[in-house]
Design brief:
membrane, single chain, about 210 residues, DUF4013, mainly alpha
C-alpha cells in the first residue's frame, strides 16, 4: 500500500475543497449524514480499485446513502454476537444479585461488569479488524448478501493477515485524523471527517487492486 498516495491524492482532485466541504456538512447531520458518509467513502474505495481518473465523487446522491444503509445493516448483523454475549452477561449479573447479598453480591456484580467491559473492548476492535473485508465484499457487486459470506471473510483475512493488520491500524489513524477538527472550534471536522474517510478509502481501494 502506498501511504503517501493515500495522504496526498485528495489534493490532486478537481474541486476537492468543495467536495470535502459539502460532504463534511452532510456528515454532521444526525444518522443520515453518517450513513451517507459510509456510502461516499465506499465509492472512493471502488474508484481507486478500478483506477478511475476522478477518485473523489460529488457528494449528496441517493446511491451513496443507499449503499451506506446496506453497509450499516451488514455492520449491525455482525454485532449480533456482541449483543448475545452482552445479554448473557447481564442475565448472569441479575441472577447473581437475586441469589446472593452483601459483599458476595457486590463482588459478583463487579466481576460481571468487568467482563462486560472487556468483551465490549475486544469485540469493538475485532469488528474494526473485519470491517475492511465487509466493505470489500460489498463493493464486488454492491449486494448486501455478499457481506454475509462468512467463509470468504475468514479466508481473505487468513490469506492476507498482514494487509488487514495494516488496514486496521490505518482505520484507527483515520479516526484520530477525523477528531483533529474538534480542536479548531469544531468547524474543522467539516474537512477532517471526509478527509479521514477518503484517506482510509484510498488504502482500502489499493488493497482491492492486489487481493
Amino acid at each position: 500500500m502506498d501511504f503517501t498516495r493515500a495522504i496526498t491524492f485528495v489534493f490532486h482532485e478537481r474541486d476537492w475543497i468543495k467536495k470535502l466541504f459539502i460532504e463534511g456538512i452532510i456528515s454532521i447531520i444526525p444518522f443520515a449524514g453518517f450513513v451517507h458518509l459510509i456510502g461516499w467513502a465506499s465509492e472512493i474505495a471502488k474508484r481507486v480499485s478500478r483506477f478511475d481518473s476522478e477518485l473523489i465523487p460529488n457528494p449528496a446522491t441517493w446511491k451513496y446513502f443507499s449503499n451506506g444503509i446496506k453497509l450499516l445493516i451488514s455492520g449491525l448483523v455482525y454485532y449480533i454476537p456482541w449483543l448475545l454475549i452482552t445479554l448473557i452477561l447481564k442475565i448472569f449479573s441479575w441472577t447473581w444479585a437475586f441469589v446472593f447479598s452483601g459483599g458476595f453480591e457486590k463482588f459478583g456484580i463487579h466481576l460481571f461488569v468487568f467482563l462486560n467491559d472487556i468483551w465490549n473492548f475486544l469485540y469493538f476492535f475485532l469488528f474494526l479488524f473485519i470491517l475492511p473485508v465487509i466493505i470489500q465484499l460489498f463493493l464486488e457487486n454492491e449486494k448486501i448478501r455478499e457481506t454475509f459470506n462468512f467463509k470468504s471473510v475468514y479466508l481473505r483475512i487468513k490469506r492476507n493477515k498482514q494487509t488487514y493488520v495494516t488496514l486496521f491500524v490505518s482505520l484507527i489513524v483515520s479516526f484520530i485524523i477525523a477528531s483533529f477538527g474538534l480542536s479548531i472550534f469544531y468547524i474543522g471536522i467539516l474537512f477532517t471527517i471526509p478527509y479521514a474517510a477518503a484517506f482510509f478509502s484510498n488504502l482500502l481501494g489499493q488493497t482491492n487492486q492486489i487481493i
